[in-house]
Amino acid sequence: MAGTKALLTLENFINGEFVPCNSYLDSYDPSTGDVYCRVPNSGKEEIEAAVEAARAAFPGWSARSPQERSQVLHRLADLLEQSLEELAQAESRDQGKTITLARTMDIPRSVQNFRFFASSILHHTSECTQMDHVGCLHYTVRAPVGIAGLISPWNLPLYLLTWKVAPAIAAGNTVIAKPSELTSVTAWMMCKLLERAGVPPGVVNIVFGTGPRVGEALVSHPEVPLISFTGSQPTAERITQLSAPHCKKLSLELGGKNPAIIFEDANLEECIPTTVKSSFANQGEICLCTSRIFVQKSIYSEFLEKFVEATRMWKVGIPSDPSASMGALISKAHLEKVRSYITKARTEGARILCGEGVDTLSLPPRNQAGYFMLPTVITDIKDDSCCMKEEIFGPVTCVVPFDSEEEVIQRANSVKYGLAATVWSSNVGRIHRVAKKLQSGLVWTNCWLIRELNLPFGGMKSSGVGREGAKDSYEFFTEIKTITIKH
Ligand SMILES: NC(=O)c1ccc[n+]([C@@H]2O[C@H](COP(=O)([O-])OP(=O)(O)OC[C@H]3O[C@@H](n4cnc5c(N)ncnc54)[C@H](O)[C@@H]3O)[C@@H](O)[C@H]2O)c1
Ligand SMILES: N/C(=C\C=C\C=O)C(=O)O
């Protein structure tokens, strides 16, 4: 383990300044298991300072025109893009994801989040109606809500943080963001660019630390009227309880147990590689990842054989290896949790076709204490097994057969989550029918994770409350008022 002096030490960013903290948390490099970074262990005191800064900055920032705010967001996007390689290296080291994914997805999408909201903020219009018989004109106006509390998870650190910061500040709010304590580095790096981009002090404050300590201080603060949260369902429950006495606006983007439904007329040449990717991208640590694959009986054996063969080609490697498809999981505790699901599946009599406990993973000596595991395929498993019902959030997917359209819809809908589904078929009528009946906020057909940022993103049932996207985020981060003029 490196000595304390060599560790990267992060600081909170409050009122445009880096502020040291009097207590720190260790942060681990998932590819080695070594502590490599110290993250501020903030609490109520830091939230008070951030609230003061955000409150003071609000009148000036909210009074700027959308065009002026848009220019600032564009400059920030440009600066992030100029640091793309540095940010990608940092994200890959901090999270365990491959450098290739960080370079091609996480950081480009973070840049795009600022560009997208810089543009979309210029195009909103409000409503107006007439009541000539009583001589009235009605119209709506929107205003920023105030100080937005933003809480993000560890799987797509900068990507999901910027997906909240960009629409919040574009709409004229000031923000206090709390990234995951497990992956705080790229948020801290972004803070170094804010002044150059022209973000005034206090508009973006980033406070680091754990959920129970600093997260709850943020959620419970009476001067933070809105919380946008992405993370797990149990944490969302706690946030809902804490914010209820203040009637806060809440956006909750939570987990999934996402089905892929593969009909006999699917194009398997496209379906198999895409379903391997949808199951194992980012180590299966994407809320949209497929974890239940339903395959029509007539093609079940063929699919299974080809799918397992393709999964074995999904290379696990150290995150800095550009040829790796998958890196390390986020933490030792998470790795153990994911492995425990495979043990449970075995105990229930399911078959593990490849991956954990079946194939051998070879790693360089330096990485043997890292949190790696092979992509794992489970079959002969019942729908009521915990592996088919609970979110595992790791590189584990279950494959089961089905007979009919009605049956598979009912089984796909039989879990508490409703985030994302994929449907594979060449019958357009069936695609429409099935997509409409699935209890899922997002349905991708014959593809996966093609994002259109204008349209609503989010889940139903236990996968969340509210939607994010151009119009949805704008509506969430603003308060609407209806004005009536009698003339
Ligand atoms: N729907 C989506 O868009 C989406 C995207 C990414 C991840 N997720 C979900 O996130 C989960 C994985 O992320 P995670 O393990 O970081 O989730 P988590 O709920 O443990 O943590 C998310 C964030 O909440 C904070 N937090 C934890 N306890 C808190 C509390 N009591 N009060 C306030 N904040 C608290 C954490 O510190 C972190 O910043 C999975 O369930 C995954 O599906 C959903
Ligand atoms: N919010 C988005 C993705 C969430 C992924 C979860 O892990 C997005 O693409 O906007």
TrEMBL record:
Listed pathway(s): Amino-acid degradation; L-kynurenine degradation
Catalysed reaction, written as an equation: 2-aminomuconate 6-semialdehyde + NAD(+) + H2O = (2Z,4E)-2-aminomuconate + NADH + 2 H(+)
A family per Pfam: Aldedh
Domain Aldehyde dehydrogenase: 24-483
GO MF annotation, one: retinal dehydrogenase (NAD+) activity
Keyword Cytoplasm: yes
EC number: 1.2.1.32
Keyword ATP-binding tagged: no
Subcellular location per the Swiss-Prot or TrEMBL entry: Cytoplasm
Active site: E253
Keyword annotations of the record: Cytoplasm, NAD, Oxidoreductase
Primary location recorded for the protein, binned into one broad class: cytoplasm
A GO-annotated cellular component: cytoplasm
Gene Ontology BP annotations: 9-cis-retinoic acid biosynthetic process; retinal metabolic process
Family that this chain belongs to: Belongs to the aldehyde dehydrogenase family.
Function: Catalyzes the NAD-dependent oxidation of 2-aminomuconic semialdehyde of the kynurenine metabolic pathway in L-tryptophan degradation.
Name of the protein this chain belongs to: 2-aminomuconic semialdehyde dehydrogenase
Species per Swiss-Prot/TrEMBL record: Ursus maritimus (Polar bear)
